[in-house]
Each structure stands twice: as structure tokens, then as C-alpha cells.
Amino acid sequence: MERQETAILIASIVLIVIITIMIFLFIIFQKRKNILLLQQKEAEKKFETAIAETQIEIREETLRNISWELHDNIGQLLTLAKIQVNIAQDDPNRLQEVTDTITKSLTELRSLSKLINPDAIKSLSLTEAINLEIERFNRLQFIKATLSSNTEVRSLDGKAEIIIFRILQEFFTNTIKHSKASTLDVNVNYDEEKLVIHAKDNGVGFNINDSNTQQGIGLCNIQNRGKLIDAEVMLDSEEGVGTSITLTYHYDKKSLPSAVDEND
């Protein structure tokens, strides 16, 4: 009888210990899960903030582009048309020149409207948006720019497209402002698994390991934007040769931080 009671007591103690351990492990798991959920929410909040900031930067860059277009291109064309009208008053044979200049001005205004209209921008693919930038560089004679792309166009996550476009926009801006380059070549290549974009200028280049230079032209910012969407961003530069960027984005990577599985 005593042995039976002892066995029951031991079994009860073991059961209580097991239940206690299970409760303890469950509490630890719940705390860990809550921490992960909190970290995920914070990561998502930071990501959404970064997206909002990027959209504002793109909007500001677009407004600067519009200003340049109006002042450096369309404004000059209209000024030329005014001069030609004055000349044509004495020489009617010059009226065709006026017509040609005004026609060109209208064409430029239509191109500019694509930048002004947000719905038009949203409807563009990433390659089309990049092409608008390339066309603008050539139109304003900032630089001789080319764009090549394969025929396959893969639909990307909208937020990833925003980040990728802004990364390239920053690289282009650095090329125009700092590189003293005469050419800019951009290649967009879609394959079944990833998107690879390579851009290269023939500018003065710089020491890629110089932290002051990196900060001055925002290279760290470009790298950090790539990390937001798990894109690989490789920057390379050589003094006297030029600067290049290679961006690789895998389609299966999510642009938002991964959610915590509720079944864990």
C-alpha cells in the first residue's frame, strides 16, 4: 500500500513538473512571439515610412525636372518662336520655321505632361519610367544616354518598383551633377527568376572606399534603399574610367517584412 501511495505521489510530482515546464515553455514562446510580432510591426512601419519618403523624393525630383524642362527647353523654344515671328513679319517665307518651332514646343509639352500627370506615371512599367528619364537627359542634352531592355517585362511589386526607380534616379542625378560624363548606358534585363539593371557612365570616377565621397553623393543611401526590398546593389567606380551600378532583384523576395506565422 505504501509503495502504491509512493508511486502515486511520484507520478503526481512528475505530472506537476511536466505541466509546470509546459506552462513555462508556453509563456516563453508567447513572449518570444509577441516580441517577433512587435519587431515585425516596427519593421513594417519603418518600411512604409521609407516608401512615403521615397515617393516624396520622386515627386520633388519630378518637379525639378519640370522646372528644367520649362526653363531650359520649352522656354527657349518659345523664345525662339517669338524671334522667328518677328523676323517672319518682314520675310513671310520664314513662317515655316515658326511652324516647325511651335510644333516642336507642342511635342515637348506632351512629353512633359507625362511627368506632370501622376496617373500616367503610375500606369508606366519600370522600364518605361526609366526610359522617360533617359529621353529627358537626351532632350535637354545633359548627357548622351541609351537604354536597352529585353522584351520580357515582368510585373513587379509596386513598392519595389518605387524603390528601384528611386535608386536609379539617385545614380542618374549623381552622374549628371558630379561625374562630368558624356555618356550613360543603362541595361534592363528580365529573366525567369530576377531583374538585373546595369547602368554605367564614363565620368571621372572616384575612390569607392572613400567614406566622405560615399556620403557626399549618397551611396550609403542607395545601399540602404536596396536592403529595404532585399535587392543586391553593387557600386563600382574607378578614377578616370567611370562609375557603374548593378541592381539585382529576385521576384520571389517580398518587399514588405515577412509576417510571423500565427501557427508557430
TrEMBL record:
The Histidine kinase/HSP90-like ATPase domain, residue ranges: 162-249
Pfam families: HATPase_c, HisKA_3
Residue intervals passing through the bilayer: 6-29
Any GO MF annotation of the entry: protein dimerization activity
Catalytic activity: ATP + protein L-histidine = ADP + protein N-phospho-L-histidine
Xref: InterPro entries: HATPase_C_sf, HATPase_dom, Sensor_HK_TwoCompSys, Sig_transdc_His_kin_sub3_dim/P
One Gene Ontology term, aspect cellular component: membrane
Keywords from the named record: ATP-binding, Kinase, Membrane, Nucleotide-binding, Phosphoprotein, Transferase, Transmembrane, Transmembrane helix, Two-component regulatory system
Domain Signal transduction histidine kinase subgroup 3 dimerisation and phosphoacceptor: 65-119
Enzyme Commission number(s) from the entry: 2.7.13.3
Protein name listed in UniProt: histidine kinase
Organism: Aquimarina spongiae
